[in-house]
Amino acid sequence: MIFDKKLIPKNVQEYNELYNYSITKPESFWSEVAESFIWKKKWSKVLKYDFNKPKFEWFCNGKLNITENCLDRHVKNNPEKTAIIFEPNKPDDQTVHISYKELHAKVCSFANVLKNNNVKKGDRVCIYLPMVPELAVAVLACARIGAVHSVVFAGFSSTALAARINDASCKMVLTSDGSFRGNKTIDLKSIVDEALNDCDCVDSVIVLNIINSGITLKNNEKWWHEELNNVNDDCRAEIMDSEDPLFILYTSGSTGKPKGMVHSCGGYMVYSSYTFKNVFDYEDDDIYWCTADIGWITGHSYIVYGPLLNGATTLMFEGVPSYPDFGRFWQICEKHKVNQFYTAPTAIRALAKHPVQLVNKYDLSSLKVLGTVGEPINEEAWDWYNENVGKAKCPIVDTWWQTETGGIMITSLANVTDGKPTFATKPMMGIQPVLFDENAKELDDNNKNGILGIKYPWPSIARTIYGDHKRYKNVYFSAYPGYYFPGDGAFRDDEGNYRITGRVDDVVIVSGHNLGTAPIEDAINMHDNVVESALVGFPHDVKGNALYAFVILKDDNTSNDIVKEINDLIAKTIGPIAKPDKIQVVSGLPKTRSGKIMRRILRKIASGEKEKFGDISTLLNPEVVKSILDGKI
Ligand code: WT7
Predict the structure, then answer these.
(1) The pLDDT value given to residue 254
(2) DSSP conformational letter for 576
(3) Most C-beta atoms within 10 A of its C-beta, which of 257, 353, 391, 414?
(4) Ligand 1 shell residues, CB under 6 Å
(5) C-alpha angle 282/484/44, rounded to 5°?
(6) What per-residue confidence (pLDDT) applies to 622?
(7) How far is it, in rounded angstroms, from Cα 252 to Cα 263?
(8) Where are the domains of the chain?
(9) pLDDT-flagged residues of the chain (< 70)
(10) How far apart are CA 357 and CA 388, in angstroms?
């Protein structure tokens, strides 16, 4: 274990004590945690911050390289230990075990490939790859040389990819000839080709051969395996300042442009690893599996960095939960004797729709801890997970956090604090949540609903939005000055447990994916026949929320295929995950006198409400509500 025992609570009382210490003396607390790592030079001050700028600096003037903490130190102590287990898409294909020593060599070799291709400290590298070990290698290779990785989930469309490449002016793109997903292969390379038509910043592309598609590469493109022939596996770790950027990761917001959240080296290292150890109660020989994709923050913090910093064995799965059947997750748990299993409520709900025999036929006795992330988990899904997967003996950690927070913020700690169905429960050490009432005053009482805020900085808070610090300030620090505003509502019970009630802005969480409504509306509005559109979320029993689009057409009669055309447009500009479940053509949208669409009313209509719309007399066009209701699908 990399942490001193006194930093790891073993029971509720120790949690309470440590939590108290962490919030009364945050600087001493975090400096003790940070002592657990290898620093090239120790920090001179633990924290400097200013909520007005806003500016947060942790472990000031400390020097480090995160990959030395992920790799070199474990190679020294335990070189043969498996770092990554790779489980391929097809169950019959070969599983791969990569030891710490091998992973270190792969990362150093690929870091040398990056250098040979003129990538330098501070340059941005876009990584658009499926869930294969080379994705983790690429991320770490960037970190090794101080290049800033920007992983784009390989389900995003070419337009979305191009926007992200351009926003960060990435100089290189790492991708593959294709990917395997269930019984399909996906042609990733042509998506990249299309994106690159619009990206002048990119000098070179390195292509991993996964599916043997036999494509020919262009002049500025090189094969991954051929590049590896030109290098050795010796690569010095670049010395980074604590506050140097480690990576950019895009998340949606309530305007069209995605936000490139920037995370820094020192604070992110300390927080992602410390939370991993505490939340999942990871012990030295455990096999840990998080089913997320590395394209999301969950994969960054809890497939790659958190586990590797702890010297853990982390499983990477290339495929999907439904292939070859809906028992695949459990087959993998049995095969690799998984001890900690971390997934999303939407996956649990989808799996719970299938015969429980698909769970029961596998031996799940290795499981010790279950986790969920991404959206609130409903009681039914929680019960199903607890009974059928955990056999009522595994604690379930419901972990609330965000791309912006870098690590888990509110959660129970496995085998230490109690879980409570539908509650994320208690703050992590060092985290000070508050609830605000409608007057933006902190609520002191319990048993209240409010807007969630975080009172004090923590080490892995995103430092800025790439290229747009003003927007960073506006979105997260303006609504409640002196606090971080995550955009969620919450309820606090008598014992101080938090239940996250959902977004309070125009972001909808569909199947655990954070989707801003604005960019999808922008995509719909690109259709020649669309005048205006409004998109809202409505409850869905598998996805948590689904999208409902209301569109006004120029000419109602021109196209019968409007629904298909809109869906195609969305898939092309954003990706298939953003397609609405329902698209209704309407004659008008409910608007305030200042012309703002009243989404509150549309949300109610979409979720099946027929009467209770509150006062609609202030609308510019109250009659439109009835006409939308009449045409509801
Ligand atoms: C939003 C952040 C954190 C990685 C995955 C999503 C929602 C996340 C929970 C949870 C209720 C949750 C929130 C949050 N959310 N976890 N355990 N209970 N809601 O990251 O894409 O940045 O989305 O996901 O609404 O703000 P993200």
Answers:
(1) 64
(2) G
(3) 414
(4) 251, 296-298, 373-376, 398-403, 424, 486-488, 500, 503, 509, 514
(5) 70
(6) 85
(7) 16
(8) 511-629
(9) 254-256, 557-559, 594
(10) 10
